[in-house]
Amino acid sequence: MNKTLAVIALSLACPFAVAQSTDSYVRIDTRPFATLPEDFRHPESLATDPASGEIYVGSFDSREPASARRNQIVRLSPSGKLLARADLGQTPITGLAHAGGAIYFLNFGASKLQRLPAKFATGQLPEDVASFGALTPPAPGDRLVANPDGSQDRIAYGSAGFPAINGLAFDTEGNAYVSDSFQGAIYRIANATACRPCKVDVLVRDPLLATTGALPFGANGIAIDESAALLYVNNAGDGRVLRMPLAGGKPEVLAEGVYGADGLLLHDGLLWAASNQVDNVVALDANGLVRARAGHFDGIGADGAPLGLLFPAATAVQGKRMIVANLALPLTPREGDEWEEKVTRWNLAQFDIPSIDTP
Question: Is residue 194 over pLDDT 70?
Answer without folding.
Answer: yes
